[in-house]
Amino acid sequence: MSIDCILFDLDGTLLDTSYDFAYALNRTCKHFNAPHLRYQDIRKTVSQGGLAMTKLAFPDLEGDALEEKRQYFLQVYFDNINHHTRIFPGLERGLTLINEKKIPWGIVTNKPGWLTEKLLSGIPFPSTPLTVISGDTLPVRKPNAEPMFKAAEECGIEPAKCIYIGDHPRDIEAGINAGMKTGAALFGYLPESAADGDWPADFFFDTPFEISEFINQLK
Asked: One Pfam family this chain carries (predicted)?
């Protein structure tokens, strides 16, 4: 097995952003007089994006009324984006090993660039990612293969020698579409609808520590 580059999904794989999302969404609920939401319910929805989280809070709304709430929610999140967000415990060692082994690495996320840039500016990674592909970097996003190809190109590694690790079936699909190895981060924000058949990954990681152990075995 030859893996020369490691690409990560962001929310629910590389960073635990769920607490700041939960804070922002419940602030939005309070502002619009909607019921308070349980953290665990929000956590399961994070990887589905801002619209899905807003819909969780306002299930009866559509169109402009829902979009108003989504924009408010995203602004509150932007303003409070780094209060509780951290690298997943156990993954710090893996990122240090990536730096020590000089393995090219990067991030491919569907998170919009204005949020991605603000979020990453407050995270002390052991080394800077060679590529960050956000949801609006290209005209298409995951599970389309183009963001994956772009990330591999910017890391200088052919896709077949990359692994993409993510916590949503869409991430595995994106990696497969690009001809990459794939890893399922089963500790992430898995949707309740995700069944075993949705995860045709090459590797399965029950904890962030297992990703670090995997990286330790490379090269």
From this structure: HAD_2
Q: What is the tens place of the pLDDT at every residue in 180-198?
A: 999 999 999 987 766 666 7
Query: CATH for 5-16+85-216, among 3.40.30.10, 3.40.50.1000, 3.40.50.20, 1.10.357.10?
Result: 3.40.50.1000
Three-state DSSP class for 48?
helix
Catalytic residue among 4, 9, 41, 79: 9
What SS3 state is found at 22?
helix
66-75 pLDDT per residue, tens: 999 999 999 9
Residue 74 CA to residue 60 CA, distance in Å, equals 19
Give catalytic status of residue 9 as yes or no. Answer: yes
